[in-house]
Every structure is written in C-alpha cells, then in structure tokens.
Design brief:
- This protein is an alpha+beta fold.
- The chain folds into two domains: 96 residues, no CATH class; 79 residues, no CATH class.
- Helix content is 44%, strand content 22%.
- The chain contains six helices and six strands.
- A three-stranded mixed β-sheet has the order 2-1-3, with no helix packed on it. Strands 4-5-6 form a three-stranded antiparallel β-sheet, covered by helices on one side.
- The protein is elongated, with a radius of gyration of 25 Å.
- The two termini are 36 Å apart.
- 14% of the residues are buried.
Length: 189
C-alpha cells in the first residue's frame, strides 16, 4: 500500500456513481511522504514541471455503501511545480493549463513564503521554550538569596527563563505546547 500525499480542494470533486462530494484525493505521484497540498502549493517531487497529471478519484461514500466506485479520473494541473487546479474533465484541465493566471501564481508564492516564515517562527519559539525547560531541569539547586541579590536574580530569571506558571504546572511540556499553540494563533474554539 505504501505512503501517499493528500490534495485538498475547495470546490468539491463529484463522484460519478453516487454524486457524493469529495474535498480531497490521494496520490503517489509526488514524494509520497504523507504531505498535504492545496491549490497553490509547491509540489515536492513532482514528475511534471508544467502539465497535467492523471489521478483516480476514490469515493468514500461508495466504499462505505459497498458499491463499486467508478474509475473516475481527475486531472492535476501543474505549472512550474505549483498545483494550480484539479479538474474532472480532461478538456477543462487543458483549458485551465493554457489559462494559468500569472497573478495567481505570484499570490500563491507569496502565501507559501509567508507560511514558511510563520512555520519557522513557530518552530523556533517552541524549540527555544523546550530548550529553556531542559536547562531549567538540568540546573543545579540554587542557594537561597536574600535582599537586592534575590530581587536581581528573580528579574533576570523572568527575562531568560520560562514563566512560573509553566515551570510549576503539573505538566510543563503540555503548558509549553499550549502557550505556543496560542501564540501561533492555532487555538481551536
């Protein structure tokens, strides 16, 4: 069976047998590393620089109902290794390939660069927090300080260490993950 990549689409793909809407499809045409792609994504490992790749649509509704799903083809439109569209009709796929809008390409590349920068920021923030927690765990016990020395030490600790609510949490790692998730804007409602 092996690994695959998943392509997510906003406009649903329609099963020709039952009419069910599918919002994703799987493919082994790329790196097959369980990556997720959407329109505008750079397709790592694409065998095609510019062109159309034929894939099959698998219908989950037909599978659950025990029906034999039709061998329904879908076509992935690729322009300079970017996924620009997914069509169920070859003639539409050819037309989409011929009419790739260069402004869309620029917008997709801009979005990809912003996402890469956002990911790097989130990764570095998480890595820094986990490293500081590790340093906290490895630090030898500190002598009891009093007066101005204790206040200066607490001030430096507030700057260079994790907040006390994380360090004293029952599960500091979960607290670090929650704080980073909130800081990255990935909080689920």
């Amino acid at each position: 069976m092996g690994m695959f990549d998943t392509i997510h689409v906003k406009k649903p793909l329609i099963c020709p047998v039952c009419g069910a809407e599918e919002f994703s499809l799987q493919t082994k045409h790329f790196d097959s590393c369980m990556a997720h792609f959407k329109i505008g994504s750079v397709l790592s490992g694409s065998p095609v620089l510019i062109g159309i790749i034929k894939e099959s649509l698998w219908c989950d509704a037909c599978h659950k109902a025990g029906r034999q799903s039709a061998d329904s083809s879908v076509y992935l439109i690729v322009w300079h290794s970017l996924l620009t569209a997914v069509e169920q009709d070859f003639a539409n796929a050819e037309a989409r390939l011929a009419a790739v809008d260069r402004l869309d390409l620029i917008a997709w590349l801009d979005e990809a660069q912003r996402e890469a920068a956002r990911w790097a920021r989130n990764y570095h923030r998480l890595f820094s927090d986990v490293s500081r927690w590790h340093e906290h765990l490895m630090r030898p016990p500190e002598p009891e300080l009093t007066g101005a020395e204790a206040e200066r030490h607490r001030a430096l600790r507030r700057i260079f260490s994790l907040p006390d609510e994380i360090l004293t949490a029952p599960d500091p790692l979960a607290a670090i993950l929650a704080a980073n998730k909130q800081a990255s804007g990935d909080v689920e409602d």
